Give the backbone structure.
Amino acid sequence: FFQHFRGRKNRCYRLAVRSVRRAFVRSTKARREKKRFLRALWITRIEAASLEHGLKYPAFISNLLKSQVELNRKVLADLAIYEPKTFKSLAALAQRRRQEGFLAALGDGKEPEGIFSRIVHHH
Amino acid sequence: VAKTSLTSPPWPEVKLPDPVEEAKYHAEVVRKVNGLISAGQYGRLFAVVHFASKQWKITNEDLIMMDNVLEAECGDRIRMEKVLLVGADDFTLVGRPLLGKDLVRVEATVIEKTESWPKVNVRFWRRHNFQRKKIIANPQTVLRINTIEIYPCLS
């Protein structure tokens, strides 16, 4: 387990025992952190790819989810690397959904009934 | 009424295209893609499949390894449903969230059912006389994706 270590840890039993134990503990903890690290990596890749198409990452992801496309970040990162045309079409879909959302948020443009607004002039 | 900072929204105003013209454009695109599929003018197909609680991007002659046990024997053919995306060079079909079963067909065969390499799980607190050691060997299955087929049943 320890023949590739550095210094006397690969030859002397006493030192090797300690370093092997630390190596095992660190690998068990790293297996849990690896998932977080990979997800952050995917997110940065997707962010870079969507910025190339003129969209920010939160806008991209939220609009994709709102249009009921449930692709996870790993696959989105792979698509952005190996299938640029597909990623461009997904970005266009998200952009279109974003604009539709803005229009829906604006509404009719009229004021609600029963309310009047008054402008006070100061002299 | 005077113009304040809140009269117009902070995002630039965008006009959506005409819905009637859009419907015509969509129908034409669907017809073209249907024609391409039925003529068979696509190269390699890739698909995004949801399998074993994970999403995979797969093509033909692909190997996939999953960290669990499948109830199929070695050499069994499996048809994967739950296809999220299918694409080729010129067109992609995006499911919302899934594509229909009469549109795509993904075939796979089970090749291998082994165990992973023995992973060592050690917890250790120094100076507290606390040490636990556990060796875990997960069962794994290896699948080979044979074919991905699409049928021209778009609407």
The first helix of chain A runs from residue 13 to 52. The radius of gyration of chain A is 27 Å.
